[in-house]
Amino acid sequence: MTGNAAPGPEREDTDPRFILANERTLLAWARTIIGLLAGGVALQVVDLRMNDALTFLASVVLIITGFLAAPAAILHSRSVDRAIRDGQPAPRDRAALVLTVILAFVGVVVLAAVLAARLPA
């Protein structure tokens, strides 16, 4: 099935708690996306007295990650919804792994910028 396929007919034994849990997960992704975008903007607005290039890099990575996480969250939510309604196992979510790796990278960049700004020259 493609990511654009409409959900099939709902099975009579579909537990609505699973569908509602999937909706809550999508809302959690929305909060994460807002946090990524806000964090990227905050790195540019707040003067952290850090290396400008590293701050800019971390900011851009956070903002781009926020933009890319939105369609990934929607596509995953739709595929989980389809699986629930069809009585199939839920597909794996690779977006969470990718997001974790990107956030670890941003964390290292910000840590390096903070240390570089605070250590004596």
Give a short summary of the structure.
It is built from 3 helices and no strands.
**Secondary-structure element sequence?**
HHH
- Can you tell me the residue ranges where pLDDT is under 50 for at least 5 consecutive residues? 1-5
Helix vs. strand class = mainly alpha
Radius of gyration: 19 Å
Tell me roughly what share of residues is in helical segments.
over 70%
Give a count of the beta strands, DSSP E runs of length 2 or more.
0
End-to-end Cα distance, whole Å, is: 58 Å
Strand content: under 5%
How many structural domains does the protein architecture include? Answer: 1
Determine the mean pLDDT: 86
Write down the overall geometry: elongated
| Largest sheet report | none
Topology:
Blueprint: H1 16-45, H2 52-86, H3 94-118
Helix pairs in contact: 1-2, 2-3
Describe the model:
The chain is mainly α. The protein has one domain. Helices cover 74% and strands 0% of the residues. It has three helices and no strands. Helix 1 (16-45) runs antiparallel to helix 2 (52-86). The radius of gyration is 19 Å and the shape is elongated.
